[in-house]
Write a structure and sequence with these properties.
This protein is an alpha+beta fold. It has helices at about 5-10, 45-60, 65-70, 85-90, 140-155, 190-195, 195-205, 235-265, 265-285, 290-305, 315-320, 325-330, 335-360; strands at about 25-35, 75, 110, 120, 130-135, 160, 165, 180-185, 210, 225-230. The strands form 2 sheets. Strands 2-3-4-5-1-8-10-9 form an 8-stranded antiparallel sheet, with helices on one face. The chain has a two-stranded antiparallel sheet with strand order 6-7. A hairpin with a 3-residue loop joins strand 6 and strand 7 (about 165). The protein is globular and about 65 Å long.
Length: about 350
């Protein structure tokens, strides 16, 4: 898949339905922060040194083991992509918002595998950010994939490493393993019941941090919450992943308990909420970004409780990308806020009509 195909298609293979705990866990992700010995961290890189890093990574991703596992990988410079395409990569969770921070675009880049499970950001906060993502609760799988990619790159890249501290990174919070493991959770019942505050307080005390849909500094739109580890120093990579899996399972159990309560004790209220959301997606002519995210959350809950038939998690994840302003502008050109709302509603109506026709 070319980079043009990637940004034109709201679907990513990691969005597929067939994954454990997919009714609550949208995705599992592992990021490894790595820096190259002998070069300043990206915020201190000169033009030529930044180019050197690009060249080093470009050669490293030609490793035979990587190509055999993931297909041919190509470095794409950020400067080669229109700003809309860059934002779509953020919306698809293939790069971070931090990579788009102003300055140094010519020597910033990304490597994306054909199946989009792997992306490697170049000259973000660190020289390399190796990211692997899959649907559902598959943290062990994404860690093993990220670790294999890391091992392949390490054969060709001399990482900055300390025998005492581990991997050296631009941010002190990443020193050690350099590993950030995260899960994206859909927690509508905990939000509706008011139990979300206690859950988030509890997980924070257990060493996890809670963020929004697109990471640090973003809001938990559509009842989506990202849980990730805070500590990277003094723990093994395996322990970090295992701890996050254990805590995530506890949150999953709390959400399922809250869903059962709502389903059993307030069935009419649940049916009403889901039906209204489903009907709005089918018939609305104006949809704001915030309203679209809430509708997708309500309908997803309907899918997971069996109240909505014929809709897949994949379709809802695609619509999440479609509803973002960057994708709308890519489709419709320069649009006012109201024109975005009109186009968003039309795309939702068309997708729902297509699904209804398929299921007829």
């Amino acid at each position: 898949m070319t980079i043009k195909q990637t940004v034109n298609n709201p679907y990513s293979p990691w969005m597929d339905d067939d994954a454990p705990e997919a009714d609550i866990v949208i995705s599992s992700r592992v990021r490894l922060a790595r820096d190259i010995a002998g070069y300043p961290f990206p915020h201190l890189l000169s033009g030529q040194s930044a180019e050197d890093v690009m060249d080093i990574v470009g050669r490293a991703v030609e490793d035979e083991d990587l190509v055999r596992r993931l297909g041919k990988l190509k470095v794409v410079r950020l400067s080669q992509l229109p700003s809309l395409d860059r934002q779509i990569l953020v919306d698809k969770h293939l790069i971070s918002p931090d990579l788009l921070k102003a300055g140094g675009e010519e020597a910033k880049g990304v490597v994306i595998s054909e199946d989009e499970r792997l992306s490697i950001m170049i000259n973000e906060e660190d020289h390399l950010r190796i990211q692997c993502i899959l649907s559902g609760l598959r943290l062990q799988d994404v860690y093993l994939l990220a670790d294999a990619v890391d091992d392949a790159l390490e054969k060709r890249v001399n990482y900055a490493f300390s025998d005492r501290y581990g991997f050296l990174t631009a941010c002190l919070t990443n020193i050690g393993t350099g590993l950030r493991a995260s899960v994206m959770l859909h927690l509508p019942a905990l939000v509706a019941s008011g139990g979300i505050r206690d859950v988030l307080t509890a997980v924070s005390k257990l060493g996890l941090t809670v963020r929004g849909l697109y990471g640090e500094g973003t809001e938990a739109a559509g009842n989506l919450f990202q849980l990730s580890n805070q500590i990277t120093l003094g723990q093994s990579e395996e322990d970090i992943v295992s701890n996050l899996v254990s805590i995530t399972r506890q949150v999953i159990n709390r959400e399922r308990t809250a869903r059962r309560y709502i389903y059993q004790q307030k069935p009419e209220a649940l049916q009403d909420k889901v039906s209204r959301a489903y009907g709005t997606m089918r018939h609305a002519y104006l949809l704001s970004a915030g309203e679209a995210m809430q509708l997708l959350s309500d309908v997803r809950l309907g899918v997971d409780t069996g109240l909505v038939k014929g809709l897949s998690h994949r379709t809802l994840s695609e619509l999440m990308v479609v509803s973002r302003p960057a994708y709308l502008v890519k489709l419709g050109g320069r649009l006012s806020a109201q024109e975005c709302d009109i186009l968003r509603a039309r795309l939702f109506r068309e997708k729902m009509a297509e699904i209804n026709q398929t299921n007829a």
